[in-house]
Amino acid sequence: MLRGSLVALVTPMHGDGSIDFDSLAGLVDFHAESGTQAIISVGTTGESATLTADEQIEVIGKTVEYASGRIPVIAGTGANSTAEAMDLTERAARCGVQACLLVVPYYNKPPQHGLIRHFSCIAEQVDIPQILYNVPSRTSLDMTNDTVVKLAELPNIVGIKDATSDIPRVTDFKQRCGDGFAVYSGNDDTALALIKAGGDGCISVTANVAPAKMSAMCEAALNGDMEEAEKLNAQLDPLHESLFVEANPIPSKWALQQMGRIPGGIRLPLTPLSDDCFAQVRNAMQAAEVI
């Protein structure tokens, strides 16, 4: 089980929207050197919604290549079509990823028994560890605890990224799915609270910008050093907020550009960070001591 800070990595792009693989290699190095426990490639923060399927697999494959065994890579392979999600998961598995992250199908709003069939089909077809991803704010559908518990019976469904900020869910998952079922926060601002409640870490946006401090905060909390975890989290709190001042990953990409780690490319319909948000994000970066 992976525990700690797992980064939901941005996909670097040139100004014309093409993928910048040189910067991607640099980001992988950055995280391998900063204590990040794993990289999530081509999740929401990686702009999966505007990458073609072939681009997604190319980014995943390159990330595995650049990681070169130094840091685990988890591929975002979710889709609102079961066939498409299954195909992406199969292709990502062939790239050599350690696991796949599968979001609740968005837009078509299936019933709970449809979610069970969707995730079960993928898990039974592709023999790789799989992490569920529940983010109702984006999918307009909440996967219930009972559905998660049912899916956790499948041996290769090994955890969940929960972005509901409903902390009592952690206790329920751990009691009913067992300690071997990993529970990760999908929201940076509730990551510490989730770990305190028995969770295993965070799949983090903040870690893009402050990977060493996010890793140290999660590690302190997991080791029971709550005084240190609280101190570090207080420094990170402004980032947890400001990196969502506009839709993710707009602020993260701007921050990384300011740090000289990526160019400013982003794909429509997302746009570069608005000028009137610059000061808030910059102040948060200063509070976290990354600039």
What does this structure look like?
With 291 residues, this protein is α/β, with parallel strands linked by helices. It has a single domain, classed as Aldolase class I (TIM Barrel), CATH 3.20.20. It is 45% helix and 13% strand. It has helices spanning 21-34, 53-67, 82-95, 112-125, 136-139, 145-151, 168-177, 191-196, 211-222, 226-242, 250-258, 278-287, and strands spanning 4-8, 38-41, 73-76, 99-103, 130-134, 157-162, 182-185, 201-204. It has an eight-stranded parallel barrel with strand order 1-2-3-4-5-6-7-8, surrounded by five helices. The mean pLDDT is 97.
Task: Annotate the secondary structure layout.
Blueprint: E1 4-8, H1 21-34, E2 38-41, H2 53-67, E3 73-76, H3 82-95, E4 99-103, H4 112-125, E5 130-134, H5 136-139, H6 145-151, E6 157-162, H7 168-177, E7 182-185, H8 191-196, E8 201-204, H9 211-222, H10 226-242, H11 250-258, H12 278-287
Parallel strand pairs: 1-2, 1-8, 2-3, 3-4, 4-5, 5-6, 6-7, 7-8
